[in-house]
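Message: I would love a firmer grasp of how sequence relates to backbone shape in proteins. Thank you; the sequence and its tokens follow:
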Amino acid sequence: MGTAAGPARAAASSAHAPSAASPLGGSFDAGASAAAGKTAGLAAVPLPSGQSVIFTASLSLRTRNVQATVGRATQLAESAGGYVSGEHARVVQAGQHATPMVDIQFKVPAAAYQPTLTALGGLGTKRSETQRAQDVTGTVADVNSREASAEAAIAQLRKLLTRTGSVGGQDQINQEEASLEALQSQQRALARETAYATISLTVARTVPAPAQHRHGAGFLHGLTAGWHALRTAVTWLLTLAGAALPFLIPAGLAALAAIAGRRWWLGRRRAGGSPAAE
């Protein structure tokens, strides 16, 4: 969980990040972190003695003014003794609206983590929040033990090299020193991660509510409504007529054929009955 380089603003803020080159002592300096929290007016939360925990959180907010909210969030983190470790602005298309969003990551002293997270959550409408606490006390103790053992082994090898002066002894010392440097690097990374919690904040602009059309009253409104109803009725009637027309044409032709046939039959019947009457 090393800190990643962010944009220009993050790079400027990272200049205030404290160095964590000192070896781990099982946990971070809670006194210094508590002092930072009290300076910001936030109540510091002490950790159990000797415990090393990595705190991470993700928070998503909606607000009317994204940039103003990001500015207030940055002030909160910096007043608690933290800094900006990364920031990314983007625009998300939601339907017909373009929604600006800012993803920003803070590093804050672990003792001020919880009150800072609570204060950040009050800057807008909370959409989601997740928290994670990873206990790395065993990992820290293991790295410290291996680092101490490596230093002791190098000291013993140097004594042997002084007495024997063999080239092979120097090669072994070089290998042990490389292993020691790797352990010290891991030690510094754990020191940073346990001393400073990581809060990832996403701020999005509130989506505007759909416009509601007000219905008026009076003669003009009634005339408009009646005209609209008339147009709707005529449209429906024309639609029905258009749908029925393909069926009416064959039916009309059949009716005409039936009428013509009946007249022809009646004419023949009359013609056949006239001689008999004579």
Remarks:
- Residues 1-46 have pLDDT under 50 and may be disordered.
